[in-house]
Amino acid sequence: MVIQHSPCGVKIVVLFLGIFQVTESLFIAAPSNVTVYNKTSTSLQIYWTEVNGIILGYRIRHRSNESIPPVADSNSSLYNNSSLFVCKNQTSASLKDLEVYTYYWVEVRAFNNEMFGNDSTIKRFRTDEGVPTSPPLDITTSTENSTSITVSWGSVPKRHQRGEIIGYIVTITDHNHNTGDWCEKFNVSSDHMTITLVDLDKFTVYYVTVSARTSKGESNDSAEYKIQTAEDAPDDPPTNITISANYNINFSYITVRWGPVDGWLNGILRAYKLRWKQVTSTANHFEKTINLTSSHSRRKRSVEYSNVAETRLTNLSIYTNYSLEIAAVTVKEGKYSEPVYFHSPEGVPLSPPGDVTSYNTSSTTINVTWSRPEENTTQGKLLGYEVTYTPTLKNASATRRVMLCYRYTSFELKNLTIYTLYNITVAAFTRVGIGKESELKQTWSDEDKPGAAPQNVIAVSNTFSSIHVSWDPVPEKQRHGIIIRYEVDVYGYENRYQNVTSTENHTAEIRGLEMFVLYRIYVRAYTRVGYGKNSYPTKC
After folding, report:
1. Which parts of the sequence belong to the Fibronectin type-III domain (predicted)?
2. DSSP states of 12-73
3. Residue 291 DSSP code
């Protein structure tokens, strides 16, 4: 060729070839067909078609949580990203340690010694689902009636869903079932966030949990939520009803005793209801409700209560044939027992309440306790108690009386005189009258701090460094107890505490004082409870 013989031509050819090579390196094609063939909840296996041309390998970059695709440029299209490099003979790469069920923008670029390719292919892929890391929130439970409850819940927090929530599982457990722990699970579709559970046992404590599930599995259960079905009427009446009669010359009463319900109570036993009538009468029944205190209330569904309940019926016609029926009461009245027949009636109690004790609880209060009179001496329906108390140093006009309901077996006497001896008795009464008083109990109200300061405080300087202090005792009515000692406080002109001397006498010698200093002297008395008021300052 002529060009081969021309030096200029050769240069031109060489220059042309150099331009051709540079141009080829400036146009590296983007990998195509970028796809994902395998993925897990934390990894993506990226595949692409091989790029023709002179390249050294591929750079794979990814970024998460972007809904808008990044803009590609020749320098860098994914900022805040992670990069992975593979050789040119490799057309796949595994992105690991990714977030579960998260979209990622993935860019694959070819590169050579001089540059990355001008074009890039950016695609969006999502990792696979995982198991939710949180149960639903905002769980609430409500009681519908005695056999059904409703459970509601909110969503699983977005960051904990880790996939599409396809349903919920509600678990209900009875830990105290008569056959051991009982548990049942209910599947709820994802478009429902509430369920009403029916055909449950009456007045039973259940524990409810809720979990969420994706295609990969079920989340942990929520915390247990305690709920109780509502109360209902007892299934059966009381059992083992017995009746005994007691008499005196003028009145009589009958005592009725019965055992617990032999079956499901279905609630808190609040009362027993008795109804009776004369056998030959066509009138309506007489009725009586025995309300139970909390200590006697049964809270179990099954029979675990062995105490025998009892009451007395009064205001009966003497020696008359009656029939009696008893029902247990929760929020509703249960079934009545079969009739029990008895003959009938009452007087004042023959014996006082027993085990009377009294003790002070403060300087102005005394607590009095007692037990019920013996049942065979009450002679009627015990209506209550009369507590009588009188200061021993005063006449009968100072006597006070308190009438109490029969449910009380203790009472606190209040507003008493401080450190005073009281005479105390307790008597029971029926509707007929008050019975015999208990033996006299004498109890002091407690001591208190003295109510006044020592009187007539006198301070005399005996020497340049000592002061003799004397005083009269606290007035007797304001001592509020036994004076066990006195305290003398001495303060100098700078209000600096100088000395404290405790004494059981009415004089004190204060030594070690400074000369020519005017001291202020206070005296106060102590009982077992504490100290009283300071005297007015005496200067010396």
Report:
1. 30-130, 135-232, 237-347, 352-448, 453-540
2. HHHHHHHHHHHHHHH-PPPPEEEEEEEE-SS-EEEEEEPPPSS--EEEEEEEES-SSPPPP-
3. E
The rounded Cα 66 to chain-centroid distance in angstroms is 45
Quickly list DSSP for 191-204: T--EEEE-SPPTT-
Q: Mean pLDDT over all residues of the chain?
A: 83
One-letter identity of residue 481: G
Task: For 68-77, give one letter per residue: b (16+ CB within 10 A) or e.
Answer: eebebeeeeb
What's the CA gap between 235 and 334, in Å, rounded?
Answer: 7
Cα 43 to Cα 392: distance, rounded to the nearest angstrom = 93
Token pair of 384, please? 């209550």
**φ, ψ at 312 (rounded to 5°):** -120, 140
Give the CA dihedral 370, 373, 375, 377, nearest 10 degrees.
180
Report the Cα 98 to chain-centroid distance in Å: 42
CA 80 to chain centre: 48
Tokens encoding 20:
């051709």
pLDDT of residue 28: 84
Can you read off the two tokens belonging to residue 142?
A: 């409500």
Q: What is the pLDDT of residues 109-135, one digit of tens each?
A: 999 988 888 666 788 888 899 999 999
Structure tokens at 116: 């990355």
* Both structure tokens of 216: 């990969």
| Cα–Cα distance for residue pair 386/438, rounded to 1 Å | 10
* Residue in the structure block whose two tokens are 């007692």: 370
Q: Residue for token digits 């977005």?
A: 158
| Residue among 216, 170, 166 nearest 190 (CA) | 166
For residues 139 and 158, what is the distance between their CA atoms, to the nearest angstrom?
Answer: 17
What is the rounded radius of gyration, in angstroms, for the C-alpha atoms of the chain?
Answer: 48
As beta bridge partners, residue 258 has: 309
Q: Which helix (H) or strand (E) holds 377?
A: helix 375-378
Torsion of the alpha carbons at 471, 477, 482 and 485, rounded to the nearest 10 = -20
Instruction: Compute the distance between CA of residue 44 and CA of residue 344 in angstroms, rounded to an integer.
Output: 92
- Convert 494-528 into a string of H (helix), E (strand) and C (coil): CCCEEEEEEECCCEEEECCCCCCCCCEEEEEEECC
* Cβ-count burial 372-411 (b if 16+ within 10 Å, e if not): ebeeebbbbbbbbbbbbbbbeeeeeeeeeebebeeeeeeb
CA angle 288, 294, 299 (to 5 degrees): 95
> How many CB atoms lie under 10 A from the CB of residue 337?
20
Note the pLDDT of residue 303: 41
- Report residue 51 as tokens: 């790029």
Calpha distance 323→442 (Å, rounded)? 48
- Over residues 225-244, the mean pLDDT reads 92
CA–CA dist 451, 449 (Å, integer)? 6
Residue type, 434: I
Residue with tokens 């009281």: 422
Nearest alpha-carbon partner for 54 in 83, 13, 25, 20: 25
